[in-house]
Amino acid sequence: MINEYEIYALRYAGPLASSGALIMWNKDWKKIVSRNYYLWCIKGCGETIIVDAGIAPPLAKKLKITGYVSPAEMLSRIDVKADEVRRVIISHLHFDHSNGASLFPNATFYIQEAEYRFWIKNRIVSRPPFKFYLDEMSNTYLKSLEGTERLSLLKGDQKILPGIECLLAAGHSFANQAVAVNTSKGTAILGSDCAHFFRNYQEDWPSIFIINLVEWMKTYDKLRAKVSSMDLLFPGHDPLMSSNYPKIAEGITRLV
Q1: Would you say residue 1 has pLDDT above 70?
Q2: Which of 56, 72, 130, 132 has the fewest CB atoms inside 10 Å of its own CB, making it the most exposed?
Q3: Which letter, b or e, does each residue of 75-107 get, where b requires 16 or more Cβ atoms within 10 Å of its Cβ?
Q4: Rounded CA separation 65/55 (Å)
C-alpha cells in the first residue's frame, strides 16, 4: 500500500512588499512585489507533520510584521494543536522558518546536521552577512534539545516516515532541506526557500539570498528529477499558494 498525504499551506504573515530583486537575484530592481510567510502541514496515514515553525509572537511584534497570526493559531484552524504536534521538519535555520520552534514543546525537530552545526556552532555566523538571518532564540532552544530524542540531526537524504523524505537541498542556506511527500497526484516537494516563488523554478533563477550558487543549481536539478510534475514543486513565499488553491480556512489552502 502506498502512503498518501495531503499538504496544506498556512499563511502566517503577509503580504510584505519588497524589490523584485529580493525574489529574483539581480533582476527586477525597480519592480515592487509582495510575498507571504508560510508554514506547511502534512496530514495523512494517522500522522500530522509540520514543515517549518514560522515566527513566534515576541519576534513578530518586535519586527512589526504585517498580517501576522501566530503559527499555533493558524494550525488550530485545521484542528491541529501545536502542543500535540510530534514531528516538525525545519527546512533551514533562518528566523522566519525556525523562530517558532518553542511553539511545539512536544515535537521532535528534523534538521540537517550540517545546517545545525553551521548556524549554532560556527562563529562565522556572527559576521554581518550571516547575522541578518540568525535567530538566537530558536538556536538556543534547539541547542537545549541536543542529545535528546527531540532533536534528530539528518545526514543527507533520509526517509522519516513511509512516504515522507527529507532531501538535502543546499544553496539558499548552508544545508537546507526540502521535503518529498507521496500524494494522490504523485511525489510533491515542499522546497521552502529553495525557491521563494514558483517563478524561480520556472526560470531556473534563485533569489537574492545565496550561500552557494553552484549547490543551488544542483538542488534545482535534484528537485526537478524527484518531483512527479513541476506543478507539485512548491516554493517558500509565493502569494499564489494562497490564491490559486482551494481555501480550507482563513489563510489556509490545500496544495495537494
Answers
A1: no
A2: 132
A3: beeeebebeebebbbbbbbbbbbbbbbbbbeeb
A4: 10
